Fold each of these.
Amino acid sequence: MDPKLITIATFPDALKAQIMRGRLEAEGIPAFIADEHTITNQPFLYMAYGGVRLQVTEQDRDRALTVLNTSEAFAVENTPEYFPDQCPNCHSDKVKETTSAAKPSLLTFLRNALTARPSQPLVRRFTCQNCGYKWIMEN
């Protein structure tokens, strides 16, 4: 008889569920993810399914909850490895900001107005005068 699986956590996306599954498996606790592909392919069904479910066997429940409760919270560092006025390729200070004066087309304007889309994000373009590297930063 197969052991019964129970849900110990739900997540809004599969990425966080996979991270927590990896933490459990690193502790020797087999874990399974349910509804991963459904929510990834049809995100509007999130509320109907209750999210991506992380499951373990009944016998591993207490150990798994202990691991999840002692795990660090999800955090993303937003600090770049370089300053905006430095080239990310060669770290030179000889950087020139190039802006394009391209105006959105009438079709783009109408699409944004009719679908209530916000305008395009402000994009800054840079060119390194030392190595020639070009990159874009969104504000």
Amino acid sequence: MTTFESEIKKASHPAEKMFNFLSDFDHFGEVIPKDKINNWQSFGDSCRFSIDPVGEVGLRIVDTEAPKMIKYTAEGKTPFNFFLWIQLKEVAEDDTRVKLTIKADMNPMIKMVASKPIKKFLEVLSDAIANHQY
């Protein structure tokens, strides 16, 4: 397994409000970077989208710990299996720290091609989550 982690970001919102928003893909689409993602489809607890150069990706919520963590996994036909965690740590009422982690099962060739876009995606998504108006 290969692990990718975002930097820890600061959000000016309560963790519970962020958790409720991010644990529903109907809302999650609002924080997805539109210039990085194509063909967004949401089904409440799962979604599908395309990301270059990785291809089509599906996500499904597999575990939650309100209001601290949401765990997603790959769903459907994806180029590789992975888990995505969003961790929320409330420091104060309007100060929540956000960290994203991806653990992916990739062969060396896919890892070489996908590592840089995955790291960039995590940074862009963590920024979007931290700066979104919930």
